[in-house]
Design a protein that fits this description.
Layout lengths: L1 H11 L5 H5 L15 H15 L5 H4 L5 H11 L1
Length: 78
């Protein structure tokens, strides 16, 4: 699950550095480490919702800080 979500995030943020991608962990912070802004997060969540046929509420979206929290939010909705 982590790898699928990481790949969606990487694709949405146009990250191409393979070494950087390999270093991403559940503790990687979306804003501080990956420079994702609120619009990026909305687009990431839309892709995740399509991929996993689920829905993530706005309140939850704005409380997500790390890749691990994003994974957990998806897992809780499956």
């Amino acid at each position: 699950m982590f790898e699928k979500i990481r790949d969606i995030v990487v694709r949405q943020l146009f990250i191409e550095d393979e070494d950087f991608i390999k270093k991403l962990t559940p503790e990687s912070r979306l804003a501080e480490d990956l420079f994702a802004d609120s619009l990026d997060m909305v687009e990431i969540v839309m892709d995740i919702e399509d991929e996993f046929d689920t829905s993530i509420e706005d309140e939850v979206l704005y409380s997500i800080d790390t890749l691990g929290e994003l994974v957990k939010a998806v897992e809780e909705r499956l």
